[in-house]
Write a structure and sequence with these properties.
Phage tail protein beta-alpha-beta fold, 3-stranded mixed beta sheet, 127 residues, alpha+beta, two-stranded antiparallel sheet
C-alpha cells in the first residue's frame, strides 16, 4: 500500500508536466489553417441581390462587422447588384475584395476601430 501512493503520484506528476503530442499538433494545425483560411463565395455567383444582402452574406462568411449610417443603409437596400467576383478569397485579402466589389456599385469600405474588432465602415463613393 505504501508503494502504490508514490507510484500514483509519479504517474500524475509526469502526466501534468508533459504536453501530449496531439495537443501540440492541433495548435500547429490551427495556426497554419488560420493563415491559410479561404472564404467561399461561389454560392453567390450570378445571383442578383441588394448590396445590403450582399453585405449580410459577406458578414456571415468573413466574420467582419459592417457599420454605416441610416442614409447609407437605405441606399444599400435600394441598390441591386449581380455578384460576378471571385468565388474564393483568402481571408486576409477580404477587405480589399469587398472594397473592389463595393466600388463597382458606388460604395467604399475602410477599416475603422481597433483591428481585433474587424469593423469596416461602408459609405457611398464620392465623385
Amino acid at each position: 500500500m505504501k508503494l502504490v501512493i508514490p507510484a500514483v503520484t509519479l504517474v500524475l506528476l509526469s502526466a501534468c508536466s508533459s504536453q501530449p503530442a496531439s495537443e501540440s499538433g492541433t495548435a500547429n494545425q490551427s495556426a497554419t489553417s488560420s493563415t491559410a483560411t479561404v472564404l467561399e463565395f461561389s454560392g453567390l455567383r450570378g445571383q442578383t441581390m441588394t448590396v445590403e444582402e450582399f453585405l449580410k452574406s459577406c458578414q456571415r462568411s468573413s466574420g467582419f462587422n459592417f457599420t454605416y449610417t441610416s442614409a447609407t443603409q437605405a441606399a444599400l437596400a435600394a441598390k441591386s447588384m449581380q455578384f460576378a467576383g471571385k468565388e474564393r478569397v483568402p481571408a486576409d485579402e477580404f477587405p480589399q475584395f469587398l472594397d473592389e466589389e463595393l466600388k463597382r456599385v458606388g460604395f467604399t469600405s475602410q477599416r475603422t476601430g481597433p483591428e481585433h474588432l474587424r469593423v469596416l465602415l461602408i459609405e457611398p463613393r464620392s465623385g
